Amino acid sequence: xxxxxxxxxxxxxxxxxxxxxxxxxxxxxxxxxxxxxxxxxxxxxxxxxxxxxxxxxxxxxxxxxxxxxxxxxxxxxxxxxxxxxxxxxxxxxxxxxxxxxxxxxxxxxxxxxxxxxxxxxxxxxxxxxxxxxxxxxxxxxxxxxxxxxxxxxxxxxxxxxxxxxxxxxxxxxxxxxxxxxxxxxxxxxxxxxxxxxxxxxxxxxxxxxxxxxxxxxxxxxxxxxxxxxxxxxxxxxxxxxxxxxxxxxxxxxxxxxxxxxxxxxxxxxxxxxxxxxxxxxxxxxxxxxxxxxxxxxxxxxxxxxxxxx
Length: 309
Prior knowledge:
Elements: H1 3-33, H2 47-56, H3 63-77, H4 91-126, H5 131-145, H6 148-162, H7 177-203, H8 206-213, H9 218-229, H10 232-248, H11 250-255, H12 261-270, H13 274-302
């Protein structure tokens, strides 16, 4: 790894830190600016009891003091504080428990989407304008344009209610099948289209034609040159996609009652659980910036001709 690459990585890390700080700051102040509070929904709570709860969790202090205290706890101790709604539990513990399920769900869905998308995209490119290409394009267009909550609802009705071959509840291993399929279909379709478009472009390059003229075997041309060089757009998309699937499957986890981080995040918003909202937002931001950084570095691995500046 040369000096330019190291400097580029160092700059990207600094930018990533700045991005996370901006997310923390904006989320903190916007959340506090919304009228109401986390204890407004408490049934028949008196003003004295509400004031006591606010004092207990430090919500009675000046806003800037709350912000600096929170920032110090997060940066130096990785402490997101206690949950305001799940009394007696720390936000970090809730996030870790939810991530065990969400990470398993997301990684499997991302792997299925990546492998299936690359294979289908390569087949469509090699069989351009033929029947198989048209079928793949029609199906992937439908999957890309269909929102995940509609796809999830259709799969739930078909396989869990009508055919009764899979459970509707995502709290068991068998119950994770439908959420995994739901999460993988749209990214798989998008990767298929990216791979097809990129591979068609690569197959038309001069060095591919030169390799064919030299008598290089078609298999070596496809796997050694065309497919490898067509993966750069896929890498660009895959990093943020993985972060989104792992922590952003909010609707899907709600539909299938999956006890993951997405479900906890939705509950924290409806319950105005400030520490939980902040904690899950920070985790999502960190995952996205890390995946973007990894994607940029992988460019160099896939194509050494790319200069990182």
